[in-house]
Design a protein that fits this description.
Chain A: The chain crosses the membrane at residues 27-43, 49-68, 101-123, 130-151, 186-204, 234-257, 263-281, 288-304, 324-344. Chain A: Keywords: Cell membrane, Membrane, Transmembrane, Transmembrane helix. Chain A: InterPro entries: ABC_transp_permease (IPR001851), LivM-like (IPR043428). Chain A: This is Branched-chain amino acid transport system permease protein. The complex is a heterodimer. Chain A is mainly alpha-helical. Helix content of chain A is 71%, strand content 3%. The longest helix of chain A has 28 residues, at 229-256. Chain B has two domains: 12-98 and 191-273, P-loop containing nucleotide triphosphate hydrolases (Rossmann fold, 3-Layer(aba) Sandwich); 108-188, no CATH class. Helix content of chain B is 36%, strand content 23%. Chain B has helices spanning 61-68, 91-97, 114-120, 130-135, 139-157, 173-185, 203-220, 231-237, 255-259, 262-269, and strands at residues 21-32, 35-46, 50-54, 76-81, 84-86, 99-102, 191-195, 223-227, 240-245, 248-253. In chain B, the strands form two sheets. A six-stranded mixed β-sheet of chain B has the order 6-7-8-3-9-10, sandwiched between helices. A four-stranded antiparallel β-sheet of chain B has the order 2-1-4-5, covered by helices on one side. In chain B, helix 3 runs parallel beside helix 6. Chain B starts with 20 loop residues before the first strand and ends with a helix. Classes of the chains: A mainly alpha, B alpha/beta. Chain A binds chain B through residues 12-14, 16-17, 19, 199, 202-203, 205-208, 210-211, 213-214, 216-218, 220-229, 235, 282, and chain B through 69, 71, 90-92, 94-96, 100-101, 103, 107-112, 116, 119-121, 123-124, 126, 128, 130, 133-136, 140-141, 143-145, 148-149, 152, 183, 187.
Chain lengths: 358, 273
């Protein structure tokens, strides 16, 4: 009823090719962005902002990155956490070596280091596909994690072997380090995630996105269109690792505040891959849905019994939590193997034709 | 070829003179281990003509197309395209030189819409840089709109306006074949290779496809090489026909010559030993 595009006539190609061609979508996205930028910092408490929203956004960014590689280009990777680690350690080295340069600049530049490493480990992708490629990226994951643990130079020879984030400021506000306010950190993370997601949307709607999807769907035909497979796949690895690197730097500098090398373990790689699959392969909005499902839902479930007035022991809650999440994952994969994004698409289609079935 | 600036160069009239050799195949042999797919085949394709390659199953027709667009590299022989001779090449290079093709079993990008599939055919003609792509602004957006206009002309031409936003995986087979033709046309090819464009179609769809093939040849002056099993279609459409059997060329000439060639009749009908 409210979601009808009837009467919205496109009179030029630019309007028709817009990222959000339907007016209601434009309004919806504007509302979500307004809530995220204004309502959340104003009304959210510091636990909600620093322990829910910031990590959610960081995971969503990493998921967007992996989705560009796995969902759009069809290349399976289990090295995401490794690439995130490269971003985090690069950012740490850069900001301690050149403290004068703004930390935002270093966070973004550390993505390039991660991209370079990603391209290197993406080289086998020309010959190796599917699960076998996942195994070769697993090598990246283990090798990079080994480096983080074994090379003390990366942590400036810190005896604890961990990164301790120094305080850095932007416009006089501390945005990293122990004194940074959650609201400030949140706004920084949100701005970076918003801009990078928009850039990703632009990429996948343009020539490069079509090249990636062509390689994913039918690489033989793609080659006949003049698409060079190796360059296209490596570009995807580079962009994806860039996103992972920035997400890693944000994770350490604006969320955790300090990081041991085992933060970037294989567990995180799997978690982000699950977010991509649950959210929907080849969907940016799905990346956010997947990250919310895997990261926020357990937190909600953990505090739900308490807020409803049940007194349940924390251990029981934790066990039930695991069972519920597991069951929900199976449920969603059976109902809609294409992820939450497809569910959302179907819902929109239903809304469009409501109250009629089609 | 038509430029992308200003009015798209899609209507070019058929002032092609058939005669110049566009593609020459000389003594090509292709082996897979001990299997001889093609043995010492020579023929040529002239500019502006419709050239058919026919033969019984397993005669090496598709292998021949794969050799022409660089998928397989023949062990012996040479291919000359637009005066340039080559021994080995990558398919992407063949595409850049102006060879497009469709596949026997449709090879569309299943997850993408009709529009995106055909837009992908324009990839080689698009040059805006990565950072403009990130912004989707300036040159990137201008280029996108320009090529969209061109693609819409192809969509018009193939009469697939109604399905432009439909994911191709959901389309019926006949339409998929048409979209695949559109994707090849979007490359503005000099030489278009069609591998069984009418396989699995009903009579009406076949007639449509024939019309499109003739129109492409007439309006755009595109040279076409096609493989087809429907002999009636082949005889009507093509200017000249090559007949292969067991990887060897057994006949070459106009439809009438081929029709009356005893070797061809034997190959198709069998011969008493």
């Amino acid at each position: 009823m409210f979601y009808r595009e009837a009467g919205q006539f496109k009179t030029n190609y630019a309007d028709d090719m817009a990222i959000f061609p339907i007016l209601q979508d434009k309004i919806g996205v504007a509302v979500i962005i307004a809530i995220a930028f204004i309502a959340v910092p104003l009304f959210g408490n510091s636990f909600f902002i620093s322990a829910v929203m910031i990590p959610f956004l960081v995971y969503a960014l990493a998921t967007v990155g992996l989705n560009l590689l796995t969902g759009y280009t069809g290349l399976l990777s289990l090295g995401t956490a490794g690439f995130m680690g490269v971003g985090a350690f690069a950012c740490y080295k850069l900001t301690t070596a050149f403290p004068g340069v703004n930390i935002i600049v270093w966070i973004l530049i550390s993505g390039f280091f991660s991209a370079a490493v990603g391209v290197f480990f993406g080289l086998p992708s020309l010959r190796i596909k599917g699960f076998y490629l996942a195994v070769t990226t697993l090598a990246a994951q283990f090798f990079l994690q080994w480096c983080f643990v074994r090379i003390p130079w990366l942590t400036n020879n810190n005896v604890s072997g961990a990164i301790e984030v120094p305080t850095r400021t932007l416009f006089g506000f501390a945005i990293t380090g122990p004194n940074a306010l959650p609201e400030v950190r949140y706004l920084v993370v949100l701005s970076i995630v918003t801009v990078m997601t928009l850039a990703a949307a632009h990429l996948v709607h343009g020539r490069i996105g079509r090249m990636w999807m062509a390689v994913r769907d039918m690489d033989i035909a793609a080659e006949l269109m003049g698409i060079k497979l190796l360059q296209t796949k490596l570009l995807s690895f580079a962009v994806s690792s860039f996103y992972a690197g920035v997400a890693g730097a944000l994770m350490v500098f604006l969320y955790l505040g300090s990081a041991e090398p085992d933060v970037f373990s294989i567990h995180i790689s799997f978690l982000i891959l699950f977010m991509v699959i649950i959210g929907g392969l080849g969907s940016l909005i799905g990346s956010f849905m997947g990250a919310a499902f895997i990261y926020i839902l357990p937190i909600v479930l953990r505090y739900l019994p308490e807020s409803l007035g049940f007194s349940v022991s924390p251990a029981t809650v934790e066990h039930v939590n695991h069972m519920v999440i597991g069951a929900l994952i199976i449920f969603f994969l059976i109902v809609e193997p294409h992820g939450l994004a497809r569910l959302w698409q179907t819902a929109k289609q239903k809304l469009r034709t409501w109250p009629f079935p089609y | 070829m038509g430029s992308t600036g200003g009015a798209p160069g899609i209507a070019r009239g058929s002032n092609q003179h058939k005669g110049d050799v566009l593609l020459g195949v000389e003594n090509v042999s292709l082996r897979f281990g001990g299997v001889k797919a093609i043995t010492d085949v020579s023929f040529d394709i002239r500019k502006g003509e419709i050239r058919a390659i026919i033969g019984p199953n397993g005669a090496g027709k598709t292998s021949m197309l794969n050799v022409i667009n660089g998928f397989y590299n023949p062990q012996e022989g040479r291919i000359t395209f637009r005066g340039k001779t080559r021994a080995r090449m990558r398919p992407s290079v063949a595409a850049a030189q102006g060879i497009a093709r469709t596949f026997q079993n449709v090879a569309l990008f299943k997850g993408m819409s009709t529009l995106d599939n055909i837009m992908t055919g324009r990839t080689l003609k698009m040059h805006s840089g990565f950072f403009w792509q990130l912004l989707r602004h300036g040159p990137a957006l201008r280029e996108e709109i320009e090529h969209r206009r061109f693609v819409e002309e192809i969509i018009d031409f193939l009469e697939i306006e109604a399905i432009r936003k439909t994911p191709v995986g959901r389309l019926p087979y006949g339409l998929q074949k048409r979209v695949e033709l559109g994707r090849a046309l979007a490359m503005e090819p000099e030489l278009l290779l069609l591998d069984e464009p009418m396989a699995g179609m009903n009579l009406e769809e076949k007639e449509d496809m024939c019309r499109f093939i003739l129109d492409v040849n007439n309006q755009f002056g595109t040279t076409i090489a096609l493989i087809e099993h429907d002999i009636g279609v082949v005889m009507d459409l093509s200017d000249r026909i090559v007949v292969l059997e067991y990887g060897r060329k057994i006949a070459d000439g106009s439809p009438d010559e081929v029709k009356n060639n005893q070797k061809v009749i034997d190959a198709y009908l069998g011969v008493a030993h």
